[in-house]
């Protein structure tokens, strides 16, 4: 075993064939680094292969000089095996192709790989911000080039995923590089293959070289029997804003998969469609009567808070005047904005995602009581998440029954990094017509404040610039339920808040706002 600061190489001996398995990008986020098993460990060892796991502490796409040096030292070790297979999914699929020259003549099995995240080669790739920010001048940075060293390579991907398809297009298909396309198989494709009952047999055939395109195309027709196919197809329809089609896909599949998350996907499609229709109605010249909120669909909060119009969240970092903004919002009648809570919502989101992952990976079908994931098919991730949110509202925020608005401000979202949009989407789904107010402040003023005195200035600058970028990107993508407010503006000019009050449909009480601004906060 070789321990590095950000990676670990763990070897388990077996037969004269070596499988080198690279972690995907989800594992560093969802599983502890210490004690993490190699991707596919139980299968490869049961098949009699020797196994080398490349374990990642973070999603760096293996752009680590120390790791590269250690892998290069192992070239002689790789050459001692009769057959070498490099494999992985997504980030791991990239690595399998990129590092193939370290074992010339090897086999590569790459599931939904990125060919590279070097913006000079793939300027159209908009995902994986952390990966794109790595040093792509290091060697082994292009899987499309690395695959030239293989005896054979299998590239398995969802041909409906436009970005995965573009990466695959950079990898020339020929006699030794074979593309296996699974329309609506989803990014990663292994869950779909497992649900189709193909994953193990296909992997065996790819290792031995027996897999071929014609047989795979026939087998791929089974994808329609897999939950993952219907889930991906519905989400694809939502991404194209074809919400009725998404609902129809879910309706047709739910009788076959009654315990799945298809009902959650259908609900999301209905909510999005309701927002679109509400917006169209609001902008229609034939509309009469008072202006309505963008989404007036019934929400489970309505029973406890019958007057609730929407939830409001101040999203920021330390020393941006968020406490002042919190008090300014409470000039709105019956608006109850709570202070910080140590980012409890992050823990709720992580727990909900772990439940969802357990259900989608291990709970696809009923298993016997001797199975380590017995009962996972009974998990209800959506209701679990709703229960945590409801408890958070009832026991942490504690708004009064007559609240017209309630929410909180939080300064610790920086811990989420590029996962912030996912958490905001989660909140948007579970709260009522959530409005996010991104609160920013001049970089120098933030860095010079006492709050950050124990931090290196470079770290503060990096944090603030990163969060401001994430705020701006999310606002640009979702202007209908976000607002950008800079401390320099609202702290000196009450009228800077007027667009926010108009968005809420609330009267702008300039006198009350000036009164709040005149009171100096003591913290």
Outline:
Helix content is 42%, strand content 14%. By secondary structure, the protein is an alpha/beta fold. Helix 8 (162-170) links the parallel strand 7 (152-157) and strand 8 (177-181).
Structural class: alpha/beta
Radius of gyration: 26 Å
Query: What are the low-pLDDT stretches, counting only 5+ consecutive residues below 50?
Result: 279-296
> What does the average pLDDT come to?
88
Portion in helices: 40-55%
Task: Using the alpha-carbon principal axes, give the shape.
Answer: globular
The description of the largest β-sheet is: 8 strands, mixed
Spatial strand sequence of the major β-sheet: 1-2-4-3-5-6-7-8
Figure out the total of helices: 23
Number of strands: 13
Distance separating the two termini: 50 Å
Strand content: 5-15%
Pfam family, one: Sulfotransfer_3
Organism: Paracoccus marinaquae
Protein name: Sulfotransferase
